Amino acid sequence: MTIQQLFKTAPVTTLLLVSFIGLFVIQVLTGVDANNPSTENLLNWGANALPYTMNEDPWRLVSSAFLHIGLMHLLFNAFAMYFFGQVAEPIFGSAKFLVLFLLAAVGGGLLNNYITWQALLEGTGQPGLSAGASGGIMGIGAALLIVALFKISVNGMVLNLKSLIMIMGINLVYGFAVPGIDNAGHIGGAITGLVIALPFAIAYRQRMTVTLQNAAIYQNQNLHRHQTTYINQPPSVDSYSAPHATDLDNSDLNSSDLNSSNFNSNDLARYRSDMTDSYNDDTYAQRSAGMDSRSNIDTAHANSTTPKTPIKPSFIWQLLPWLAMLLISIGFVWWWQDIHAQIIQILKTIE
């Protein structure tokens, strides 16, 4: 996929990749070692470090997600972002995808600082620093796990849940096996991604249910609109003609019959009158029956084709993912303030 195609499909992913690479190039141009940057250089460029981040520089929780420790670290995270981003961004939307990445990165940084702080209190650890987009990327990968679990289609295809679990598992195992990797940041980012993606998947499922219901209503309306109703109608007046005088005159009644005493002119007049009355009665009954039948069917057809109002999805389902991210943001602020307050209290006690 070319850079133009990637930007068209996933613009935020493209911009994140450009920012990762661009920041690294600027570092190298300013004299930072491309493979082994010093601690001082990393702190100057915004790395996450407990004494700074949890005191006066909370912005390091975000800046550290764009900073990488060496070329190999950059290449690994850039490939992972490219792989996950081009799939996840079209699903979540560019805005939600960006917030997902940032919150996952912040969640990973906070968990790293919390574990470091607890280790310092127990006397089993020491302050360190961390950097890299791994926490945010793990959050995106965990969000895709929820997408696969809920069978949300991506361009008509469903993600392979087992493959995603294997990829996430390998990253976590690699983090535990290799020293120097911020595995707490990976876990914190993954948990944040899961929590964000779950309300998104629930809201998506509800909107799809409403969409399918509206599609069924639309299909039924079109079916009734184009349906042809066949009615068994009685013979029309045009298909049955009453005997006329000429028909009777040309019948088997010959002149001898007419002149006989058994069938005189009065009998013929009475015969014509009886036939005409009988036909009129039968025709009226058939017309009445046909009109009643057609009226009943037309009424039923009109009732069946009465348009139903499409169902509108509840506005709460559109807001649910944003509400979840807002609550997570508030929780992160509280978490930072709690650790910050503990540090300040310990420092005052020491003084």
Distance between the termini: 59 Å
CATH architecture of the largest domain: Up-down Bundle
For CATH, the homologous superfamily of the largest domain is named as: Rhomboid-like
The DSSP helix count reads: 14
The first-level CATH class of the largest domain is given as Mainly Alpha
Overall pLDDT level: 79
Helix content: over 70%
| Total E-strand runs | 4
Main sheet: which strands, in order across?
1-2
**Helix/sheet category:** mainly alpha
Main sheet record: 2 strands, antiparallel
- Total domains, how many? 2
| Strand and helix order | HHHEHHHHEHEEHHHHHH
In one word, what is the shape? globular
Evaluate the radius of gyration. 41 Å
Q: Beta-strand level of the residues, as a percent range?
A: under 5%
CATH topology of the largest domain: Rhomboid-like fold
Low-confidence stretches: 230-272, 278-291, 300-306
Architecture blueprint of SSEs:
Blueprint: H1 3-9, H2 11-29, H3 39-44, E1 48-49, H4 50-53, H5 60-63, H6 71-92, H7 94-122, E2 129-130, H8 134-149, E3 153-154, E4 157-158, H9 161-177, H10 183-225, H11 245-249, H12 255-259, H13 265-304, H14 315-350
Antiparallel strand pairs: 1-2, 3-4
Helix pairs in contact: 1-2, 2-6, 6-7, 6-8, 7-8, 7-10, 7-14, 8-9, 8-10, 10-14
